[in-house]
């Protein structure tokens, strides 16, 4: 005869885990980590608190999974653009244009979860802020590496400061995210992107592409 423990372990979940996770993504994206409570999450996900803990662990464990899911579905465009385009400028240009579109797409929260979720966070949640900061810095480092490769190939002038230029682009992207959350439309963000690209160093001969 099956024990009570065996029956409980074999009992199927009464909710779709992927759908619940998607709702958690939206909750954290809209409110940020600190302001999103367990009751907010259970309401959005349509499950009870015990079901949430059983399926996802605590709030921090759920958030870690949310960040991975966000990157898979929405947030990976920057790293893809830099990796796939033949030059750093082409990658950055594509990333900025895609940011303008992604951050203002109707039917989803505005801006970038990785940029905004740790705003106004308490010291008790410092590890969350540190984790998101490292993700942002990883993108900046990837841009810097692409810039250094272009310097080595002659695509960019030898005196180009790769670190400063990459940090500038990172600041522009973060600013675009906040502007989107403040209500800026796609065309406004595209104008910001165009201005940022004007600061890109020109290669020998005067071309900037």
From TrEMBL:
Protein origin, superkingdom: Bacteria
Task: Quote the protein name from its UniProt record.
Answer: TetR family transcriptional regulator
Per UniProt, residues of the HTH tetR-type domain are 14-74
Record bears the keyword Transcription: yes
Q: Name one GO molecular function term.
A: DNA binding
* DNA-binding region, residue range(s): 37-56
Q: Which PROSITE patterns match?
A: HTH_TETR_1, HTH_TETR_2
């Amino acid at each position: 005869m099956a024990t009570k423990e065996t029956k409980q372990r074999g009992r199927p979940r009464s909710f779709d885990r992927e759908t619940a996770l998607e709702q958690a993504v939206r909750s954290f994206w809209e409110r940020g980590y600190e302001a999103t409570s367990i009751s907010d999450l259970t309401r959005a996900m349509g499950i009870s608190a015990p079901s949430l803990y059983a399926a996802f662990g605590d709030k921090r464990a759920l958030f870690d999974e949310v960040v991975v899911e966000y990157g898979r579905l929405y947030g990976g465009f920057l790293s893809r653009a830099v990796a796939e385009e033949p030059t750093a400028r082409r990658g950055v240009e594509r990333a900025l244009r895609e940011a303008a579109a992604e951050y203002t797409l109707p039917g989803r929260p505005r801006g970038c979860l990785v940029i905004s979720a740790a705003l106004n966070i308490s010291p008790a949640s410092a590890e969350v802020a540190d984790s998101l900061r490292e993700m942002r810095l990883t993108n900046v480092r990837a841009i810097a590496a692409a810039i250094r490769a272009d310097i080595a190939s002659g695509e960019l002038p030898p005196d180009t400061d790769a670190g400063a230029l990459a940090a500038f682009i990172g600041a522009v992207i973060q600013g675009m995210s906040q502007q989107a959350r403040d209500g800026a439309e796609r065309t406004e963000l595209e104008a910001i992107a165009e201005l940022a690209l004007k600061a890109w160093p020109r290669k020998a001969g005067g071309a900037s592409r």
